Amino acid sequence: MATVEIYTQPWCPYCERAVYLLTRKGVPFQEIDAPNGSQARAEARQRSGGRTTAPQIFIDGRHIGGCDDLMALDRAGRLDSLLGLG
């Protein structure tokens, strides 16, 4: 199974949606609390090539993008193989 990291912030509906999808798929993931101004948020920005929005999602160290990117991968049928599910 893939290693999944997701940088989130409180009260973020996109973060909740991404976490829900990963949970529904039964994928273990590390959720990293990264509110604006935090060291974790700076790390997410650096790792993602400058993206400032939440969530930022990484699968096996590879930047996937945000919630919309995760959902698009799922709709295209490509997410399960990245997660090691298929």
Automatic annotation (TrEMBL):
PROSITE patterns: GLUTAREDOXIN_1, GLUTAREDOXIN_2. The keyword Glycoprotein does not apply. It comes from the Bacteria. One of its GO terms (biological process) is cell redox homeostasis. Residues 4-64 form the Glutaredoxin domain. GO terms for molecular function: glutathione disulfide oxidoreductase activity. GO terms for cellular component: cytoplasm. The keyword Transcription does not apply. Keywords: Cytoplasm, Disulfide bond, Electron transport, Redox-active center, Transport. PANTHER family: GLUTAREDOXIN 2, GLUTAREDOXIN-1-RELATED. Has a glutathione-disulfide oxidoreductase activity in the presence of NADPH and glutathione reductase. Reduces low molecular weight disulfides and proteins. Belongs to the glutaredoxin family. This is Glutaredoxin. It comes from Rhodopila globiformis.
